[in-house]
Amino acid sequence: MKKIVMALAVVGFATFCITSCGSKKEEAKSEDAYDDYEIAEPATAAEPTADDVIAEGKLLVENGDCKTCHHPTNKIVGPAHAEVAKKYDFTAANVTMLAGKIIKGGSGNWGDIMMVPHPTLSQPDAEKMSRYILSLDGEKEH
């Protein structure tokens, strides 16, 4: 049994040495092969447009639990999203304020029924959702 274990250890060590040495040679060759090429600058991602952010917000709303209480045009438990868009101007201040309401929940602006908080939602995602909702009346952010 000891002879089998020893033989396997020797074969494993020999395999390791052969494969390790071979990769270093190839690595050296590949470095030399690219000496004549210039290194390209990495591509930068384009800044998302306002329409891109609104589209992301729409996806977040559609894939979240918003539909439980809200509808784009009809009142369910909470106000229709279009009614929210009509009530608030599409400004950065209102985007931030509505994002806070989405995250913290609350009641009083649309009646006594409390909106459920969404504490795991990030501020940037809640702002995307707010931008989508405020865009529903056709107004652009100003």
What would your notes on this structure say?
The protein is an all-alpha fold and 142 residues long. The chain is 56% helix and 0% strand. The chain has 5 helices and no strands. Helix 2 (50-63) packs across helix 5 (123-135) and helix 4 packs across helix 5. The longest helix is centred in the N-terminal third of the chain and has 32 residues, at 2-33. The protein is flat, with a radius of gyration of 29 Å. It starts with a helix and ends in a 7-residue tail after the last helix. The model has no long low-confidence stretch (mean pLDDT 83).
Ordered list of secondary-structure elements with their pairings:
Elements: H1 2-33, H2 50-63, H3 81-87, H4 92-104, H5 123-135
Helix pairs in contact: 2-5, 4-5
Gross morphology: flat
Instruction: Encode the helix/strand succession as letters.
Output: HHHHH
The poorly predicted ranges are none
Give the beta-strand count: 0
Broad structural category: mainly alpha
Helix content: 55-70%
State the major sheet.
none
Q: How much is the radius of gyration in Å? A: 29 Å
Distance between the termini: 80 Å
Number of helices: 5
Q: Estimate the mean pLDDT confidence.
A: 83
Give the strand content.
under 5%
Task: Provide a quick synopsis of the model.
By secondary structure, this protein is mostly helical.
Keywords for this entry:
142 residues; mainly alpha; 5 helices; 56% helix; flat
